[in-house]
Write a structure and sequence with these properties.
The chain is of the alpha/beta class. The protein is 33% helix and 18% strand. The two termini are 40 Å apart. The structure holds iron/sulfur cluster.
Amino acid sequence: VLPLLSTPWRLGTLELPHRVVMGSMHTGLEPRGDGGAALAAFYRERIEGGAALAITGGISVNEEARGGPDYVVMTDDSTITAYRTATTAVHDAGGFLSAQLFHAGRYAVGEWAVAPSPVPWRAARGLVPRELTATDIDRTIADFAASAAAARDAGFDAVELMASEGYLLNQFLSPLTNQRADDWGGDHAARMRFPLAVFQAVRSAVGADFPVSVRISAADLMPGSTTEAEVDAFALALADVGVDALSMGVGWHESTVPTVQASVPHGAWIAYGERLADTVHAAHPHLPIIGSNRVVDLRDAEGVLARGHVDAVALARPFLADPELVVRSFAGDFPIINSCIGCDQACIDRSLVFQEIGCLVNPRAGRETEFPLGITNHRKHVAVVGGGPAGLAAADDLARRGHAVTVFEARTELGGQFGLAARIPGKEDYQLTVRSAAKRLAAAGADVRLDARADAAALASFDGVVVASGVTPRVVDIEGADLPNVLSYEQAIRTGVPAGTVAIIGGGGIGVDLAAFLVESHDEKTRALAFEQRFGLDGSAEFARSRPTRALQQPRPGSQVTVLRRAGKFGQGVGITSRWVNVGALQHAGVRMLAGIDYRRITPEGVEVAHEDGSVELIPGETVVICAGQEPNETLSAELAATGIRHEIVGGARDARSVDAVRATREGLEAARRL
Ligand code: SF4
């Protein structure tokens, strides 16, 4: 099915059966203190699902290398013990595990942060990193070497040096962050000295037969940072000193160019890795180059290999979403795959606040020991009422473990809030979640009834009920809210909004999504082109943010849309990684966003608001859309409570204060295990 991906290759001395790599993700499971049980289960499940080589999240090479309080140090006994458990599990499952050796440098969130030069980053909140002395630098090089030796002792099959995404090795390379006047700074040759010294020390520590790869920044996406020629020079220098593979990264954490969000077109940045591969292969034709970034579907990865530049493709988040990504893809069973939707809500957003990561579409991710798989010996008949994210998560888990599941969905299609979200430009992949859940339910023999309501009487014969009846848009108490030009967000998304001016009441996550629905193209190819033009991704791989752009047709001029908010941030409730991108896209499109107002009344012409200074303004709105939250659908739960039928309430039906799909799917899984 995927002929190029399924050919073997070598990473140094490692023989790998296919060209899909599970890329590095910081999981937050590392410091659990469980002897590595959670890590072992996490990696084993993915190796059993077909990943041949997985790369761990960053493991710090010393205390000051830690990115935050939840990072572990490779040379600590507890770390070695935990990873010995993980590597044993991976080997038992027939795979390989590579340790990513990591130094956060100035990105460390703690007073221990160090850097080539005392240059804080934009989210450092006043924390200025300490400049490494020459002695510190020698010690850090030795710590990398000691960590590599410890990784080998812990049973790892390879190590990857993190020299991308703006971490310490990358910081030494960049003139933005390396302003040293000694031998470790200066021109690019001098700035390369530290990462090359690290590589050579690591090589000496582990020997020539132990694979060492480097994750290299193919583009920093930071104005004034390392140039394309400098990226090439570093890659070639690594090749000259015997690196076993180069894996591409792109973009620093503080870059204002999106690289990982749902709105980033699939594979958008891979051209940078391809260009790098061409440069390296011209001198070192057999050095593997691993492409990555926003590759979600292995058919796309196959297409990347078919273009003939990179040698393998690394994916990370798609392995959180579906541990069986590889076996399912190689079997051609694509519709059943639980695709990563790029939301970042349970993975990157959580890791940024030092929480264990999970996955919105796979709530078992990171919790494999807590929710083991296995067919039940006590088969129950369970009804799930509501086919939105929470209900589907519950039904999926129950059916997979052998319970008899009946899903009642009042609409003619599954999906609930996900069905709505999938109509928002950039969120089309949400539909894949619904489709794959439906496929898995069908494969497990679940009875899915559409256009089917269930009351307490109909549910009395079941052993248990999951109430996932969802939410209804909230009706606001504003004069004129019953006028014919007023729509709920659900009506607007399902039936569309007539041409003309639009005022959106409510600027939280749904209000921002609705504005995107109105002003952004619903055609993915058009949007991909707009993305490339906006961010200078023109194939030459040279970052030029202010490059002139050809005007692209928008469905509605941004100037016709106003988002209104009484107080708070626009897009409040949207994850930290996505909010700035989503709100920025609306600003770029010319949407007016107005906060600090009071609603006076709605008229056929728009919304009359009062500003803080007391002045009154009519916001044009031939259509007014209410995005002011939602109410739980509680009728069924109230009925069931009165009858004593065993039931669990999940998702929006349980708490509609904020639509939180991560919570919804987690509750679905937890309810499935409680029943
Ligand atoms: Fe993908 Fe969202 Fe899951 Fe992260 S939480 S792996 S972005 S689906």
